[in-house]
Design goal:
heterodimer; A: about 230 residues; mainly alpha; MetI-like fold; about 75% helix; B: about 240 residues; transmembrane helix (chain A); MetI-like (chain A); ArtM/GltK/GlnP/TcyL/YhdX-like (chain A)
């Protein structure tokens, strides 16, 4: 199994892999951004109890939460071209990166929908009533009263989803995307130093996660600035 | 390309044969991980000297890297360590005889342990402090107070998180196909490439995962109901999982 373990190679591989961190972060940022939009769109029918659409959204969320991301990835990769070929659109030559972004956006969208719905229903209805009683419009009520309180509840979950999503991007290489993991696989194929590559990859992923966690902590403090010392959101 | 709907059923029957291995890979790591998580939580709660920083590092690292890394590191790393040990001791044993699923179980147990330790910790911190004080005041020892008062309540409160984690681990087993395990995804891959019907096979695999996830959630729902019902009387029983 490979060649003799050589720790110095780990340091040598890290710069090569970091060059491909951009692709990984590109997938992450695009899928979080699109996922947020899908999440909002999917949360609205559930919050306002719109019939039929609400049931469809429930099935969508259940399916995403009930299947592994890798299966979703394969379904989009093989399914989307098949579906679009019915209406004569040929996307079978499209860059695999787009399929990855579509899959992760759909996946994050379902998770975000649940988070948003939970966070908005966690804000007491009395808040909305109070806002209306002092003459706010529904839009003002949402942006000034409900949203700031909901984001405080939702934020830890959003942060977890972002970090989980970053780790999930490591599966994109299975459909041939050249992200950090994909580059790692090519290094293994070329040098047969698998363990060193995986250690180097772990170091990079861990570093990014640590930076993200630090950033989220700062924002969480900011979102909780009116909460006094007890910040637990039970 | 047209979707061959009857083939989905053919693939479904073929892929369903992989359910036992998948469940094994999903359940055993969560069970082992539960004990790792409990041990790590106790070390972190009682700030055991020396082990404390190791436990912190373990949780932070395993939560900060993808599970695929853990599988790959164990899968490539352990044989290397074992081989050098065997060579220096001249033992009559070959590492390539170890079945791959043992590496997967070992790696996923470590992953599960790190996630479970955070779940158990949040469960413990949700139990009111007065409970421990009350247990001490009637003369219970720390292990008694832990085992009879604190943990039953903490674990009961953690059940929703256990549900998410168990379903999550069912999905995590799908990456075991990368180390050529014939679990659901691996099987789907084989059926797909031998029949050149990729979409149909993965639809079938998706339906199986979906079904198992829904059944798992149902079982946990029943457990939760029972545990909650028990704790109404103020006694609480250990969550059986």
């Amino acid at each position: 199994m490979g060649k003799v373990f050589d720790p110095s190679l780990i340091l040598e591989f890290i710069p090569t892999l970091v060059k491909y961190l951009g692709v990984t972060l590109e997938i992450l940022v695009a899928s979080i951004f699109l996922g947020t939009i899908i999440g909002i769109a999917a949360a609205i029918p559930k919050l306002f109890h719109i019939p039929i659409v609400k049931q469809l959204v429930t099935i969508y969320i259940s399916f995403i939460r009930g299947t592994p991301i890798i299966i979703q990835l394969f379904l989009v990769f093989y399914g989307l071209p098949a579906v679009l070929s019915i209406i004569n659109i040929d996307i079978s030559r499209m860059d695999a990166l787009y399929f990855v972004v579509i899959t992760y956006s759909l996946s994050n969208g379902a998770i975000f929908a649940e988070i948003f719905r939970g966070a908005i229903s966690a804000v007491e209805f009395g808040q909305t009533e109070a806002a209306y009683s002092i003459g706010m419009t529904p839009f003002q009520n949402f942006t000034r009263i409900v949203f700031p309180q909901a984001i405080r509840v939702a934020f830890p979950n959003i942060a977890n989803t972002v970090i989980g999503s970053l780790k999930d991007t490591s599966l994109a290489f299975t459909i041939g995307v050249m992200d950090m993991m994909g580059r790692g696989e090519t290094i293994i194929a070329a040098t047969a130093h698998a363990l060193e590559v995986y250690i180097a990859l772990s170091v990079v992923y861990y570093g990014v996660v640590l930076i993200l966690e630090k950033g989220f902590k700062v924002f969480e403090k900011y979102a909780n600035r009116y909460q006094g010392t007890d910040t637990s959101v039970a | 390309m047209v979707i061959d709907i009857p083939f989905i059923w053919v693939a479904f029957k073929e892929i369903a044969k992989a359910i036992p291995l998948t469940l094994m890979l999903a359940v055993i790591p969560v069970v082992i991980g539960f004990f790792i998580g409990l041990a790590v939580t106790l070390i972190r709660e009682y700030k055991v000297k020396g082990l404390y920083s190791i436990a912190n590092g373990y949780v932070s690292f395993f939560r900060g890297t993808p599970a695929i890394m853990h599988i790959m590191l164990i899968y490539f790393g352990i044989p290397m360590v074992l081989d050098s040990m065997i060579n220096s001791l001249n033992l009559p044993f070959e590492t390539n005889k170890i079945p791959i699923y043992l590496y997967v179980i070992f790696a996923l147990s470590l992953t599960a342990g790190s996630y479970l330790s955070e779940i158990i910790r949040s469960g413990i911190s949700s139990v009111a402090k007065g409970q421990m004080e009350a247990a001490y005041s009637i003369g219970m020892s720390t292990p008694q107070a832990m085992g009879r008062i604190l943990l039953p309540q903490a674990l009961a409160k953690s059940i929703p998180n256990f549900t998410n984690l168990s379903v999550g681990f069912l999905h995590t087993t799908s990456i075991a196909f990368l180390v050529s395990q014939k679990e659901l995804t691996g099987m789907a891959n084989i059926v797909a490439s031998s029949n050149l019907k990729f979409l149909e096979s993965f639809i079938a695999a998706g339906l199986i995962y979906w079904g198992i996830s829904i059944i798992m959630e149902g079982i946990y729902y029943l457990v939760e109901k029972r545990v909650q019902q028990y704790s109404k009387g103020g006694v609480g029983s250990l969550a059986r999982d």
